[in-house]
Amino acid sequence: MISAILVMALGAIVLGAALGYASIKFKVEGDPLVDKIDAILPQTQCGQCGFPGCKPYATAIAKGEAEINQCPPGGEEGIRKLADLLGREVKPLSAEHGQEKPRSVALIDENTCIGCTLCIQACPVDAIVGAAKQMHTVVDSLCTGCELCLPPCPVDCISMTPIAETVETWKWKYPLHQIKAA
């Protein structure tokens, strides 16, 4: 019995050492530039930039495969921050990818919703909850305003409501280091 325990312990030590070596040998490190670019992007995951989400767009920018002006939700402020980070020229938002709009959230009309679940399937951040053939609702704190829920709705019961500017939602238009004392 003791020999069986020793064999098992030895096997565990050998496998543990092999896994430890493999984790060091095959370590995959993220690109810190991609992480910085991704942190600037609005995380709407809307695809308006031509990429399936903010992280793939950030990766393409870092590799030089995409321009910094393809994100309508990030708008002029996002383009300016990306230009500062990357040392590039500030460009106007690409009209091909859309136009800058005020930040908004989806609102579902309870009287019109038929519970088809198409909006739930389209939402990239799982901000819509509900069950089949039941009224759905939007969790405002999760909604990124990407508008991907609008096209699949067969009864047009979803509208976008602009978010009122409050202390919590307001952002500095310019970074503090760019504001000059009068």
Automatic annotation (TrEMBL):
GO BP, sorted A to Z: electron transport chain
One Pfam family cited in the UniProt record for this chain: Fer4_21
Subcellular location, record wording: Cell inner membrane
Subcellular location, principal: membrane
Cofactor note as given: Binds 3 [4Fe-4S] clusters.
Residues the entry annotates as binding [4Fe-4S] cluster 3: C123, C143, C146, C149
Keyword Glycoprotein: no
Binding residue positions for [4Fe-4S] cluster 2: C113, C116, C119, C153
NCBIfam families the UniProt entry points to: PRK05113.1, rnfB
Role, per record: Part of a membrane-bound complex that couples electron transfer with translocation of ions across the membrane.
Protein name: Ion-translocating oxidoreductase complex subunit B
Organism from which the protein derives: Denitratisoma oestradiolicum
Lineage of producing organism: Bacteria, Pseudomonadati, Pseudomonadota, Betaproteobacteria, Nitrosomonadales
Gene this chain is encoded by: rsxB
